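Limitations

Structures in this collection are predictions, not experimental determinations, and the ligand pose is part of the prediction. Treat each record accordingly. The example that follows, with zinc ion as the small molecule, is included so readers can see exactly what is and is not provided: the inputs are given verbatim, and the output is the predicted complex.
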Amino acid sequence: MHDVVMPGMRAIEDEMIAVRRTIHAHPELSFEEVATSGLVAERLERWGYQVTRGLGVTGLVGTLKKGSGSTAIGIRADMDALPIHEDTGLPYASSLPGKMHACGHDGHTAMLLAAAHYLASDSCQFDGTVHLIFQPAEEGGGGAFRMLQDGLFERFPCDAVFAMHNMPGYPTGKLGFLPGPFMASADGVKITITGYGGHGAMPHKTVDPVVVAASLVMALQTIVARNVPPLETAVVTVGAIHSGEASNVIPDSAELQLCIRAMTHEVRSLLLERIEALAHGQASSYGARAEIELFDPYPPLINSEQETAFARQVAVDWLGEGGLIQNLVPVTGSEDFAFMLEQRPGCYLLIGNGDGEGGCMVHNPGFDFNDDSLAIGASYWVKLVEAFLR
Ligand code: ZN
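Predicted complex:
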């Protein structure tokens, strides 16, 4: 069968798989990606890239210019691992207890490195600038946001920006594109209800925050059911609720922690607005008061129409419709590449990690990135650069 991967990429495939496995064996958590970014920087410099380190603490950008064109493309890979104890039994499994590349960011980094290697070779021609963005802390801490705060797009102007994530459950190496809202916003909400504590046998002398919390949990369910338009997507989950220590003591306060998800800015604002109104309204109706704090805000990930159509066409021209994941639907997970897509048009796409053995879900101790998709993903980056900087 005709090999879709270019010979130059096949020639470096084994070496890049070895790099992937080295990164896999030495996972680093958010903002601790010192060895990983060091490895990336060393390779990029060896291949002739101008490397700028220290964006978003451990992030870096590798820049390569060919020809005289003024167009620039940004491609981002994430580098961080998760606080999970690996249980794959693989020969290159994590050497560090409690840390693991359980989301395949080792593969994303290696794919972009393989593309970098090929892009720098004489067999690859393009006209313009490539900024390869190696991002820390995707899993927590908003590494993308931190890189933007450090002037990512001012210092490395990109006309469009792209990123790829592996996805178990889809055939190996198939690519998935979806224009518009693709992944959800994510906001943490902490609600503290303050009542007035006292003896469990004399509730009339207290303002019981436990009752307020219970009432609020039920009221919060009406936001999705009664306020969000039925054809829109939204999630309001109360993931934690804490109050009290003893059966005969009515506590002073109760704390709720919520996770909320939406696919659009409008629905996200509606959720926050209704949570606030219900928390204050419910609390005051019982004579208590509520305080609301937001944490870890991530915007919805919205793929721009034009760049997504372009990125998809590059895949179709190369692989045909058969190379694509069909019937892709949006997901209520979140992704901090959304911050970059707020500032530049672009597309976040998926690459199938396999539906057989590669079907183990990300963030599971048995997960591993599928090396069979590495050369395909890397070749796609090359095809995209060649088409974008034609
Ligand atoms: Zn991930």
